[in-house]
Amino acid sequence: MTEAHDRAAGARRPAVTLERHSPIGTQRDNGRPVTGGWGPGGTDGADGHEAVELLRQARVAVDPELRSALGTLPGPLGRVALYHFGWQQADGTPAAGSAGKAIRPALVLTSAAALGGPEARAAAVKAAAAVELIHNFTLLHDDVMDRDATRRHRPTAWTVFGDSDAILAGDALQALALRLLAEDPHPASAAAVARLADCVVELCAGQQTDTAMERRGPAGITLDETLAMAEAKTGALLGCATALGALYAGAPEEDVRALDAFGRAAGLAFQLIDDVIGLWGDPRRTGKPAGADLAVRKKSLPVVAALTSGTPFAAELAALYARPYEEGVEDLAATALLVERAGGRDWAQAEAADRMGRAMQELARAVPDPEAAGGLLALAEFVTRRST
């Protein structure tokens, strides 16, 4: 039995458990929120105020760089990109929409500050903007491939401008990201370009694996391969973000590697909770229709954990997943309940806590002072305490 299957069966328990079926991912220890010291909760992390402020500061720092970069795009590409970021309406008039939470640029800036102080943080703004451009390149492409109709509570770019324009706008964002770093005079920029390019290749490989898995039936898909795919798709960019911050702080290679591992583990925890939200989150808060992943037979982590649980509910779920979804015939809420009864929800939340524990170990290697690491701890906790 694999390590992932051991955890699914409850043989391995995480150091921190997650309160079940409360706001998703709320972390508890003996019924109380975890606070203080090392570990999820960290300094000021229990209520998320520190993380929210770091995200706000990141948004303020990178938005001018992003707007400047998007302003260099030719008219039609710029129009799609500005719409996607929420800064324009489809007709080109200004909008005040959300450009996202800025988790990845916040990780770049906070990592730089943790290892190099305010000067390193200021120097890493272009790198933070580059990571955010890469993230949005993947979102534009993902929406086309997944046929998602809404993002950030508005129609996705492909539904407004068409597949081709959305794909090409995403390609342009990737080019802008690499150009930002290539033109940056900072001594770490060359290493940052190489690391970000490698990350894009890993992201694409993870997405290719994901789409290939969607074409396969439910039989034979393992938790190990699904976890590896999720790390490539989500963990790789968060790891790259924290590693770039370390590079811009002039950190030694072992610290860069440790922060990359920290970001990857936190990123996988993020994906696990995101998958839980995709199945059981409130559509009024997520901006996405309930059960959308189940309708397209997506092999999300809770679903694969349920399918491989060996329970009678797993067999029933596999039978459903073996045939196409029929609107008006299959009750998606009942399908989600099958995933839960087969243990998929509890496994995903426990696995998220386990990955957070690993993330904390890696962070302690690079930043042994809990006070210096406080911002990264707060951000890591934030991504697994979301309910939207």
From TrEMBL:
Transmembrane segments: none annotated. It holds the Pfam family polyprenyl_synt. CDD domains: Trans_IPPS_HT. Residues 1-44 are annotated as: Disordered. PROSITE patterns: POLYPRENYL_SYNTHASE_1. Keywords: Magnesium, Metal-binding, Transferase. Its EC number is 2.5.1.1, 2.5.1.10, 2.5.1.29. Residues 34-44 have a biased composition (Gly residues). InterPro entries: Isoprenoid_synthase_dom_sf (IPR008949), Polyprenyl_synt (IPR000092), Polyprenyl_synt_CS (IPR033749). GO terms for molecular function: (2E,6E)-farnesyl diphosphate synthase activity; dimethylallyltranstransferase activity; geranylgeranyl diphosphate synthase activity. PANTHER family: GERANYLGERANYL DIPHOSPHATE SYNTHASE, GERANYLGERANYL PYROPHOSPHATE SYNTHASE. Belongs to the FPP/GGPP synthase family. This is Geranylgeranyl diphosphate synthase type I.
